[in-house]
Amino acid sequence: MDLATLWFVIIAVLWLGYLFLEGFDFGVGMLLRVLGRTEPERRVLINTIGPVWDGNEVWLLVAGGATFAAFPGWYASLFSTAYVPLLIFLLALIGRGVMFEYRGKVDSDRWRNVWDWILVVCSWVATIGVGAVLVTNVFGLPIDEAGNRVGGPLAMLDWYSVLGGLAVAGYALVHGAVFIALKTEGDIRARARRLALRAGPIAVVPLVALLVLVGLRENTTFGWIAVAIVLAAAVIAWLRLAAWQEGQAFALLGLAVVGTVMTLFAALHPYVVPSTVDPAFSLTIADAASSPYTLEVMSWVALFGTPAVLIYQGWTYWVFRQRIAVHHMPPVKVP
Amino acid sequence: MDVLNLARWQFGITTVYHFLMVPLTIGLSLLVAGMQTAWVRTGDDKYLRMTKFWGKLLLINFAMGVVTGIVQEFQFGMNWNEYSRFVGDVFGAPLAMEGLLAFFVESTFLGLWIFGWDRLSKRVHLACAWAFSLATMVSAYFILAANSWMQHPVGVRFVDGKPQMTSIGDVLTNPTVLAAFPHTIAGAFAVAGAFLVGIAVWWLWRRRDTDDEHRPVWRASLKLGAWVGAVSFVALLVSGDAQAKLMFEQQPMKMAAAEALCATEEPAGFSVFAVGELTGQDCTQVKSLTVPALLSFLANGDLTSEVKGVNDLVAEYQERYGEYYPDDPALGELAGKPIDYVPNLPVTYWSFRLMIGLGAISAGVGLLALWLTRGGRLPRSRWLVRAALWSIALPFAANSFGWIFTEMGRQPFVVVPNPVGIDGMWMFTAQAVSRLSAGEVWASLITLTAVYGVLAVVEIYLLRKYVRGGVEGAMPPRRADQADDDNVLSFAY
Q: Does the beta-carbon distance from B90 to A51 stay under 8 Å?
């Protein structure tokens, strides 16, 4: 494997980390007003991800930064072509990001309500946005031979974008519900589990449709294996959740993300941005890659940096491993 | 406005805004880590209260720095994709390193610090504070290394019309970043120092006639802030002087523009204040209060040497980098037009002076406040309190002016040619912008500015509320009714 292909795999891994981790924390945000019926319950939900959401989000920033460093051509084409969806996505991340710190800073129902809805709306919008952009990238963007967009601001959006948005949102919803079931006690836990069991089979339909579509298009053994992993993981996750094994269900859904990312990036290979205007304009891994020296430097950085990140982020989840419930919430105290 | 100007306005607005949060985060997080260290080492409750109070304000500000930083990373690809393609091989690396080696540490350990009170041992919890505050500095280093490369490209060769990195070591030890880093960090501490002084003086004044159990907290904060402010100012002068000398070599036009010096002078005087139109063409229009030979001293360390003026530099630049933009339709209106090598002189001239002047006033107010509260005295003068509170804003403004100066002073280049570097290794800002429709960039500029505006109001409202809440407002609530083993969360959002 040459360095450019290695970096293609590393970018896939960074996306995997992002979709796995922020997938469920987006899901918690999406479900805030559905599963949290009272103010203390909503606080419980927010605090399941309170200590970790920021670290989760950095996976995206690093995926973006690594794409810039390793594949400047990819970064330049994708980010400018998906301009409007990314702008909306950014606004959603801004809203969500300040929400965590600001929501509890004023003791007023109206204040908290506003931030609640910011969290809910921003979580939905960000999840759909990131799914739409990633999946559309896999199926192709309308780029000319210089890698610039052909057509207006919304030219990149098509049915794949819609399917991609729904697929990631549906998955995030289920993973979020299972995470809540894993991290809470009492009513919320039961409610989250019930929601995941009932809504899960419907919510994963777009994801399955997407994967089958990719599978049919590519028709490779590797692709079908990846699709099979996702389906098997999802079914077993449902069964384990039904048996109150939330931790196993959560891990299995994580495996489903692995399969999904494998399917998508295998389909994208050897391109980084297929062109829907003319296949000859498509950017390949080799076209978009940085020089071997830059890739080598970045490989060393990734080799030492990534295990460290996994260790200290893993440790954070260990430190905050206990289930939380309404009676654990410290009283509200603001000046 | 065309896409180029819209994209420039957006970059300017979002970057200046982001850099209001960043220096306070950098400076204050290290000071808070220091306060917590003092508490762990001495056990003195005063330091715990300091940590809690200033830590609360730090967190309110931190959140904004994080979310506005994401926009920064995205907008290179969104608005400046030609730039990204051109420089990606070398510029992307420090950005990716920042994410992987610094930002991950910052965000993860910040979460541990916020929620880790009483859950982690005192020492581990303190280590988390140091981890995230030192990571903010590492972050700053990588970002400044990337920026410095745009100011002074090093460590590359030129292959197929694009820079290709040949040495990451050269990029990370660019003399430009070695000078910019201490200057920027000192600027961050100046912000944090003035912040401590302003708020501490206000609290001392507010409780000047009553007993205040927290007075030691405010006294210690005032002392810390004033000294940090004063030392930072000295560090700013020293590092700024080093930076200026480097800049005279690396970007002579920027420094001539800082002075609005139109003709070459030998020796050159430093203009303190000027009246008239600063156009660079004709010096006779400008009346200026000048310190003789000072500019020669700033540039070269002597009182006699020559400093080149804008008009001579223009001729030199035209010869080296061309008189006209390429006749490329991608350049829009500028295609085939003459290149204007002179930065916006009123902006460079005044931002340079405001940077220095505002920084000096703020450090002075800090020391004055320290003097007036010496030996157990309390601030009696309403004017001192007002001055100290208003002085909080000054280093923020000075930082902004510094960045406006250095970024606008390098126009019309986005990658400034290295005078001893590779021929052809530069990029004009006009060539860097994405091929977008003006409508979408307008949409982006307007929504981001509006959202940033609303968030500024919210942040200031919350900061004000928590400043007024004092130490009491920042201490965790007491929970006498719970068993110890039930204490799963000592803090919750």
A: no
Contacts of B170 in chain A (CB under 8 A): none
Identify each DSSP E strand in B79-237 by its residue range.
156-159, 162-165
Tell me the angle at which helices B438-474 and A83-102 cross, rounded to the nearest 10 degrees.
10
A273-291 core/surface letters (b: 16 or more CB in 10 A; e: else): bbbbbeeebbbbbebbbbb
Q: Which residues of B touch A98 (CB under 8 A)?
A: 63-64, 67, 455, 458
Nearest by CB: B92 against A47, A72, A328: A72
| pLDDT score for B139 | 95
When pLDDT is cut at 50, 70 and 90, the band that residue B22 belongs to is very high
Nearest to B313 by CA among B405, B248, B240, B404: B248
Question: Cα–Cα distance between B153 and B163 in angstroms, integer?
Answer: 9
- Comparing alpha-carbon positions, the chain B residue that sits nearest to A84 is B440
Q: What is the DSSP letter of B158?
A: E
ipTM of the complex, rounded to two decimals: 0.92
Distance spanning both ends of chain A, measured CA to CA:
59
Say which residue the tokens 């990451």 belong to. B168
CA distance to A9, A45, A227, A230, A276, per residue, from A264 (Å): 12, 31, 10, 12, 17
pLDDT exceeds cutoff 80 at B286: no
Establish if B464 touches chain A: CB-CB under 8 angstroms: no
Phi, psi angle pair for B289, to nearest 5°: -90, 115
Report pLDDT for A333. Answer: 85
**Alpha-carbon gap, residue B13 to B11, rounded angstroms:** 6
pTM of the model: 0.93
**Chain A residues within 8 A of B116 when measuring between CB atoms:** 51, 319
DSSP A38-106: SHHHHHHHHHHHTTTHHHHHHHHHHHHHHHHHH-HHHHHHHHHHTHHHHHHHHHHHHHHHHHHHHGGGS
Encoded tokens for B188: 């961050």
Half-sphere exposure of A319 (CA within 13 A, CB side): 28
* Chain centre distance of CA A128: 9
Q: Tell me the one-letter amino acid at A144.
A: D
Q: Which chain A residues are Cβ-neighbours of B85 within 8 angstroms? A: 72-73, 76, 147
Contact assessment for residue A75 and residue A64, using Cβ atoms and an 8 Å cutoff: yes
